[in-house]
Amino acid sequence: MARRVVSRKDKIAEAEATEAEKSAKKAKKAKTSKRKTKAKPATEVRMKMYWGVFSQSLKRIAVFEYDQKTEAEKRAEELSKGGKSPHFVQKVKEEIGLD
C-alpha cells in the first residue's frame, strides 16, 4: 500500500483556520467583561489634637485640650515628683464623633 501524500498548503490552511477560531473565542470572552462597581466615596474622618500626659510605660494618665499645654506640663511635673517614674507630655490625635 502506498502512503497518501499530505499537501503542505492544506496543512497551513488548516492551522490558520484553527488559530482564527481560537482568536474569535478569545474576542467573545473579552467582550463579556464583569460589571464594574462604583467605589464608595471615602468618608472624611475628623481628628482633634489634645495634649496627653503619659507614664514611662506609655500609659495615658490625663488628657488636656490643645490650648492647655502649660497645665499638662504642670501635671506631668506633679506626677514625676517624689521619686516616681518620670511622666511626659505628648500630642494625641482622636476622632471626633459626628453627631
UniProtKB/TrEMBL annotation:
Residues 1-41, 77-99 are annotated as: Disordered. It comes from the Bacteria. Residues 25-39 have a biased composition (Basic residues). Residues 7-24 have a biased composition (Basic and acidic residues). This is Uncharacterized protein. It comes from Roseimaritima multifibrata. The lineage of its organism: Bacteria, Pseudomonadati, Planctomycetota, Planctomycetia, Pirellulales.
